[in-house]
Amino acid sequence: MGDGLDLTLLDGAGLAPSDAISFFRQKALLPSERFGEVMGEAHARAFTVAGATSQALLNDLKAAVNTALTSGTTLADFRKDFDRIVAKHGWEHGSDPGWRAKIIYDTNLATAYAAGQYAQMATPEARDIFPAWRYRHHSCPHPRPEHVAWDGLVLANDDPWWDTHFPPNGWRCHCTVEPVTRSDLRRNNWTISEAPALDLRPWRNPATGKTEMVPKGIDPSFDYNPGKAWLEGRKVAQAKQAPLAPRTHIGTTSVHHVPPVEREAQQAQDVTELLKSGARGEVTAGTLPHEIQHVLGSSTPDIFLSHDTLSKNDPRHPEMFSDYVKLPELLQRPLIAQKLPKPLHVRLISGLGGKLYNLVIKRTRDGQRIYLQSFLRTRTEEVARMLRQTEPFYHQDFDLSDYDEN
Q1: Residue 162, helix vs strand vs coil
Q2: Which of 16, 69, 145, 281 is the S-S candidate for 250 at Cβ 3.0 to 4.6 Å?
Q3: 25 contacts: CB under 8 Å, gap ≥ 6
Q4: DSSP-assigned letters across all residues of 82-97
Q5: Where are the beta strands (DSSP E) in 291-339?
């Protein structure tokens, strides 16, 4: 069921726009066991296929989709690549191969084209020329009533409705958005309307068991604007590359622009002050590599350490307090990062001075902050076990034999 018409909009469409290709290629590989683990805007930064838990498998699937984007591979050609990849990795995906190949091909291409189009339409010059955007539904055998109702809707190009309703708005949805000039408005007697009210409906996430609210007419995990999420993530990445570093003082927040070489020293000093004072508050304890921030979907790379986290480790692990001042270096240069079953949680394994550390971080639901949840020393055999159980999405070359047993 969906808004596609035999994939005429995408099947073998030829070379994709450069922005669409850039959007797709920047995605990091993110293994997942089932649908619902990776939702919404996280898809703008990560390539994930439900049930694909191997980095190697995901890498091959992403390469096949990339070929479809850059060479105009048809669905039939992609199906051949899909069957070859499944056989190579022995992947038991538990669904009809033709249907699964179609979903992967269709969803990734539609999302990439939409993100590329948004990138072109959202420039200041384009927004000035095209003050409005028009929603277009394309006829299909089994249309969604809501998508049909939205056909022809003209809204301002900065209307918040586009944040959740910029297509694709579901599996096999091939609705599109067309830019509208002032001349178009006059010639067609169109008026810029008010956005329809959001009609949120409850949906139970099968991976988390939690109930989430999804706009009516939009499939779960499609209620976001892929192009906007991508561009905002790129701005964060560019800001991180600048020689700036935020500093959070106990109880207050103030930003100081300091050179990168001084950032870790300043963060270590702030952590020390929090440890000594015992005051309630939080400080910036470290800065994540961009690749990990990207997968977490956070608007900031900074990791915050709170008094609450410190209190949880006292008095059970008093030996760890002398290690807290190492956090800036440990967070900036982790050895591996693994996605945890809990949503928005990531485990980092870092090493320093011949010792290994297990750090768990969590992103807030609004994406504005990342907090250190736990911080413990770990053993080489524990790290080896973790690597056997779950493949990391971020991995630096290192040798476990370089670390002692703590």
Answers
A1: helix
A2: 281
A3: 66
A4: HHHHHHHHT----S-H
A5: 302-306, 336-339
Distance from C-alpha of 148 to C-alpha of 138, rounded to nearest angstrom: 8
> Which phi and psi (to 5°) does residue 346 adopt?
-135, 140
Residue type, 241: Q
CB count, 10 Å around CB of 117? 21
CB 3 within 8 A of CB 140: yes
Q: 3-class DSSP state for residue 323?
A: helix
> Rounded distance, CA 99 to CA 117, Å?
27
Q: Which of 23, 268, 250, 18 is nearest to 258 (CA)?
A: 268
Closest by CA position to 162, among listed 140, 179, 181: 179
pLDDT tens column, 121-173:
999 889 999 999 999 998 877 899 999 999 999 999 999 999 999 999 999 89
Q: What distance lies between CA 325 and its chain's CA centroid? A: 30
Percent of the chain past pLDDT 70, that is, above it, reads: 85
Q: Report the candidate in 230, 96, 117, 102 with the shortest Cα–Cα distance to residue 168.
A: 117
Q: Using CA atoms, how far apart are residues 335 and 19, in angstroms rounded to an integer? A: 32
Instruction: Decide: 302 and 246 in contact? Cβ < 8 Å.
Output: yes
- Cβ(281)–Cβ(251) below 8 Å: yes
Global pTM value: 0.59
Q: In the chain, which stretches have pLDDT less than 70? A: 1-16, 236-261, 277-280, 311-321, 404-406
